[in-house]
TrEMBL record:
It is a peripheral membrane protein. Transmembrane segments: none annotated. Gene3D superfamilies: ATP synthase delta/epsilon subunit, C-terminal domain, F0F1 ATP synthase delta/epsilon subunit, N-terminal. Keywords: ATP synthesis, Cell membrane, CF(1), Hydrogen ion transport, Ion transport, Membrane, Transport. Produces ATP from ADP in the presence of a proton gradient across the membrane. InterPro entries: ATP_F1_dsu/esu_C_sf, ATP_synth_F1_dsu/esu, ATP_synth_F1_dsu/esu_N, ATP_synth_F1_esu_C, ATPsynth_dsu/esu_N. This is ATP synthase epsilon chain. Residues 89-135 form the ATP synthase epsilon subunit C-terminal domain. It is found in: Cell membrane. It comes from the Bacteria. Residues 6-85 form the ATP synthase F1 complex delta/epsilon subunit N-terminal domain. CDD domains: F1-ATPase_delta.
Length: 142
């Protein structure tokens, strides 16, 4: 049985990145990863850095990198207000790889209780999430 679709809006500070009907999406909120389909219980949560994975009404999969923000779920409408939202084609892979190297160097130079250590971990997670979106998108095109 085909899923009933719902409307999804992904909006960042620079504008709308996605607006359309989808069958499902997966995103990581403050309580962990969640899957959302039509009729989901209303929900408001903070988004963790990572990606939103969606399946549109034509069964086409898409990934969008998200860096923070808020997710609001209503039974037939979902809105993501992201601090940063990027499609795989908009991610500079070389910069993300360089950010990983820089963050790893920072981690080597600071103790685990240091605020610089926490900042480096955050930067590392951000860069790794960007590369993951690029990798998934590249593999899907093959």
């Amino acid at each position: 049985m085909d899923s009933i679709s719902f409307h999804l809006d992904v909006i960042s500070g620079v504008g709308s990145l996605y607006s359309g009907s989808v069958k499902s999406l997966r995103v990581t909120g403050s309580e962990g990863e969640m899957g959302i389909r039509y009729g989901h219980t209303p929900l408001l949560t903070i988004i963790k850095t990572g990606m939103v994975r969606l399946v549109d009404i034509n069964n086409k999969e898409d990934e969008i990198y998200l860096a923070g923000g808020v997710l609001e779920v209503q039974p037939d409408n979902v809105t993501i207000l992201a601090d940063t939202a990027l499609r795989a084609d908009d991610i500079d892979e070389a910069k993300a790889q360089e950010a990983i190297k820089t963050a790893k160097k920072m981690l080597e130079n600071h103790g685990s209780g240091d605020s610089d250590y926490a900042h480096a971990l955050s930067r590392l997670a951000d860069a790794m999430a960007r590369l993951k979106v690029v990798e998934i998108s590249r593999n899907r095109r093959r």
